[in-house]
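Reopening this one. Same input as before:
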Amino acid sequence: MNCDSIASSYRWFEYLGFGGELQRRRCGLLGEIGRPRRALVLGDGDGRFLVRLLRQVPASEIDSIEASARMQALARRRTGDRVQHRHGDARVLPLDRGRYDLLVTHFFLDCFDADDAPTLVARLADAAAPRAQWLISEFRQAPEGWRAVWCGAWLRSLYFFFRVTTGLRTRSLVDHHPLLTRHGFRLVREESSRGGLLASELWER
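Same output, byte for byte:
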């Protein structure tokens, strides 16, 4: 998924659909993290979360991986040289083993299908330190009732929008919970909003 075609307008698309709720989900559990020495942020797009992370942990070394060059340019304008920006595909970019004590994937894992998600999570887990934390925000499918109908309609619309505008091939969510558990992480805190459609999670190893 490459957001170059919508980079300049993405923030307004986000506000049109969700107001400020996606940013609230990104930052909702930020106060729960420790004081990481090295953090890896994937797919932050235009850098609004990176700015908040820099305020929270100003002494940390932060690496950011982004596939969209135009999104990355927007993030650079916001963060300057305080973040090490890396352009490329997180599935193949080299990552040092055990380097990071904080991983951040906001509205990122939901871009990968059942073939790619397990491999990606395994690579990120390998780059995580033994006691790392993992901060996640994601869309979620409610299991039943009116919430299931509500979430399903939104998810179909979102996947269609990003398929048309960015070429995203993924068409449905992959449950990341068993993938993280397999690599020694446990869910310690979560919050949800918009009828269960949006969720923030904090995991620890």
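So the earlier flakiness isn't reproducible anymore. For the record, DSSP finds seven helices and seven strands in the chain.
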